[in-house]
Design brief:
By secondary structure, the chain is mainly alpha-helical. 66% of the residues lie in helices and 6% in strands. Strand 1 and strand 2 form a beta hairpin. Helix 1 packs antiparallel against helix 2 and helix 2 packs antiparallel against helix 3. The longest helix has 24 residues.
Length: 103
């Protein structure tokens, strides 16, 4: 286990959720390491003859996918630790729909 995973587990242990958060902490650590590696790679391929033509590289696409997965995992971890509250307020659309269907 790395220092980062241990640090995340300390946060979870402070909230009494260490066992549930172990796998999430390891996933977060893994994703952070992969994202660090991908940041070192170029994200755009530029055509030398026409510099205005640019194409994203596979590293850019992979970074985008991993970043989304990282954000979702981190959000789940924070919910588990009680640091992120569910939105309790009802959205205006749900309130409108509820008012129309309860008649």
């Amino acid at each position: 286990m790395t220092e980062r995973a241990a640090e995340l587990l300390k946060i979870a242990a402070a909230n009494g959720e260490e066992e549930k958060a172990r796998e999430l902490a390891e996933d977060i650590d893994f994703l952070e390491q992969r994202l660090q590696e991908l940041r070192r790679l170029p994200f755009l391929r530029i055509d030398p003859k026409k510099p205005e033509r640019q194409k994203s590289t596979p590293a850019a696409r992979l970074y985008k996918e991993l970043l989304q997965q990282y954000n979702n995992t981190l959000k789940l971890f924070l919910k588990l630790c009680g640091d992120l509250k569910e939105e309790e307020a009802e959205s205006p659309l749900r309130a409108w729909l509820k008012a129309r269907t309860e008649k």
